[in-house]
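dumping this here before i forget
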Amino acid sequence: MAAEFSARHEREEREVLYDTKKQGAAGGRKGRRTRMKLWFLNKTKFFVILSCLVVLAGVIAYFAYGGLNLGIDFTGGSIFTVEMGSPFDDADINAALKANGVDPGSAQIVHGGANNESAIIRMKELPLETDAVSLRQSILDSLSSKYPSASAGEINNVGGVTSSEIVMNAFLSIIIASVLMMIYIWIRFTFYSGIGAVVALVHDILVMTAFVCIARVELNSSYIAACLTILGYSINDTIVVFDRIRENNKRYDTRQLTRWQIADMSIRETLPRTINTSLTVLITTLAVYIFGVQSIKDFTLPLLVGLVSGTYSSIFIATPVWMVFEVWRDKRMQFKPAVQKSKA
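structure:
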């Protein structure tokens, strides 16, 4: 399929080059534009509506569920460690929690230690009239029959002030990363391309947030790490497309091809590379999600959504936004001489 796509594109490109040279050789026909079918950018409205629907579904889920499913990194809570002495099963920890009045669904269990022999239990709220020390001891007593070598580990509490600082630092890191990327794109390409790239990045973050809201995935520090990872991945994919557009702008005369035609051609030229790269990363990330522990799954699940969204936005969001501004600038530049001439 990829080979057939490349062959069709190369055939059409040869026809465009031939038609361009033919028109250049004919003195009076230089203003005539080549007819080229748009494969992707003619469906921009459809994909923008699709993105809006996904974000709208996330907003509806947000109000329906009463907000995001925030983890203790954002809400505060208790983290205590139980040294199991041997590899353990999460089901045993959940059974011990349930026996002591804790809903297993409200607790997160992370495997830690050199040999994954430490159970790190993260809980937003403790049972009434129970502190972390006594709860940990009760859990040890429940596990002693199956894990006789289990012992108590450290206890950490995340307060409201600490969680507020984490939230502020998380948003600040995303904003700073987006601004710096926009400046980089502005320097390397144009200011309008920087706007297109940042719009695509904001789109990716909104889609990821909509997903975790709909799927009720716990929002913790792993989600912030996934967002920052996607910002880097998405901008790299966008730069590849933008760089090809810049090359083709130099290669083709806008009197023969419109900016939309050049952009669409550039997307087609970079599409095989985009598909191959995205599939490779997706397969690897999916394998990590399937075979990883819970703490890794908290990171890779939003990452999978972000990878798809990043590939999608570099083609259907960033490029159209850039082209809209470029076409607007071209019309504005054409309008100024006409106004000056009329005044003269």
